[in-house]
Amino acid sequence: MRSKETNILQGVVLLTGIIYIVTGIVFFISPLIFGKIFAINITEDWFNGIKNDTFVAPLYFLSRGFAAMLFSVGLSMILPLFDPLKYRGLIYYTCIIFPIMVSPLLIINGYSLNHNVLVYFGITFAIILSASTIGLIITRKDLKASI
After folding, report:
1. Model's pTM, two decimal places?
2. Are 135 and 8 in contact (CB under 8 A)?
3. pLDDT per position as a tens digit, 11-56
């Protein structure tokens, strides 16, 4: 059942999927490119130094692994485009629970450590959270009608 409300939710899901895919793929392919996009000063021998650091090396590769997961989650956002009422659970997990956990973490630490990239992504996830919440609330009536 299509309505104006479900189209709004689909738009939110589509934008969220695009953000997740782009962020995940760029960071997975090369964190150096990611750093350059946000004007982070990275030296040429940075990666060689990471390989020898027993603490930073696992964090580096774990973050690339999480970037791959973010990319996969972005691809899974295709499912709610076909039937947003059926895949509300997926929207709750990826657009509500994840941003609720990550946006305060990034915003607070971004401000306290003066890292604008963290603040930028924290605000991005907060916007995803807000838009998704609004989309889920306005489609509640459609969900009850389809049951």
Report:
1. 0.86
2. yes
3. 999 999 999 999 999 889 877 777 777 677 777 777 777 778 888 7
